[in-house]
């Protein structure tokens, strides 16, 4: 799509609105990932084969390290004795710290413990194949030597050395790809840089075009010239970027031919990104199913990207390993973050978790690298990844929940299975039998790895897997039970979970976080009009947004009697034949936690 006739009004009101819409939409993975192209990229004319070649190392890699490191590691979440809420690298914004005052923190940035080779080896030992580090974040501080501003690590800190140079050398030495994160639009220190929700210091006033021409563009050129091969460029928060402004970066890619770029160069209409880039960037959440585009989920280990001394909401190693697998099973990459301290040490909690992930990867990495998305809609006990060859397939079954009866069912798999073995023990005999619906595998009593045991199925020929979705009874009724639900939780905060005392008595509970939502895929064989019922327990009236087959509506559910479950009519819809989906998410207008057992679609009698 051409740019010339795009009319985008990007005043501050629009921005605030679009940021709000954007943050709301971010809980709708499909929207968060959507891209309406308003800006052509440098690779828009490449052929499929060229793209395949350019993206191949990245697709093969599946796992990378994000590093958020900068001056914000000095205050580490506390300014003038006050804990500043929100993510650590945004302290200048959330603390409304004047430029002069913020700059003083640079005097205490002296990372004498910084050991770039140790960082690279840490990533490599964890099984990561690439590193993306903040060359400049929103505070405008260059972690590298730059000619265009003295707000940089060489001139403004006692450390006095470029930290990217030795990192690039160490990465090259150990075969790890290196990428740079660069905040091209937001810059809270250089006059003219954009800000979210307005400026708070007159020193920030200035012309954005000039800022881009004099700081951002030359710095990208420096980053692309002085550090050898750079494999990824990670743009971010394109507030106030217009197609004309994005054009200022035209041609820089020529300095790093083949570089892979994310989609955050410019917003398009409706607050979604307006640049396709090479991959999409779901942040802090994992999309529900496989997408037809390259994507990378970035995530923190606690709740902040930049170091905060008092953030101790760490995810478990089990969670991180399963997230990596979940993402790979949906065809994405995992960019897992560490926020080093101002002295150059990485928090021990992060080091420990990376070690655990590495231990799992040493045994199981062949089920991650170079794999593609699972062919199954849902596996009740875990996830799957696969590698396809011309006349065979390796199917990796990631067993999170070890079945009590020792029988692992793989329903829907119609191929001939020619062998099965565990990655943790190639020798062990694994009996497999064909069943009416697929295959059944007899497992040992105990998992080989309680976090995730990987079983490989060797399969003849190209995969043939049935999409097994909930469907209608002979009366045309469709029940969406909790065995088939996809639960989406934000990466931190409340966790909507499956409770109940048995498999037949499951309940969705602890829905305290309005960002959590649930989704079902189903198959309609007999189309028509349906009443939608929720089997629900509601203590105080609540609102939901119900989306069925792409249509959303606001639903109010009144309290149910005596703290019991009731079947409540919540909507009436028309459904065509074929696959559809239904999601239920709290509305931000009125929300009180509910418990849910199922959704039923009953045909309306004519
Ligand atoms: C954001 C934040 C930021 C962080 C990034 C990582 O949009 O502004 O601080 O660097 O996401 O994805």
Name a few traits of the molecule.
alpha/beta; 3 domains; 606 residues; five-stranded antiparallel β-sheet; TIM Barrel; seven-stranded parallel β-sheet; disordered N terminus; Immunoglobulin-like; 29 strands; Jelly Rolls; globular; binds alpha-D-glucopyranose
Structure in words:
By secondary structure, this protein is an alpha/beta fold. It is built from twelve helices and 29 strands. It has three domains: 15-362, Glycosidases (TIM Barrel); 382-460, Immunoglobulin-like (Sandwich), CATH 2.60.40.1180; 478-603, Galactose-binding domain-like (Jelly Rolls, Sandwich), CATH 2.60.120. Strands 8-7-6-5-2-11-10 form a seven-stranded parallel sheet, with helices on both faces. It has a five-stranded antiparallel sheet with strand order 20-23-28-25-26, with no helix packed on it. Helix 6 packs across helix 8 (164-173) and helix 11 (317-329) crosses helix 12 (348-364). The radius of gyration is 25 Å and the shape is globular. The model is unreliable at 1-34 (pLDDT under 50). Bound molecules: alpha-D-glucopyranose. Residues 68, 87, 89-90, 236-237, 283, 298, 305 line the site of alpha-D-glucopyranose (GLC). Alpha-D-glucopyranose (GLC) is lined by residues 68, 87, 89-90, 236-237, 283, 298, 305.
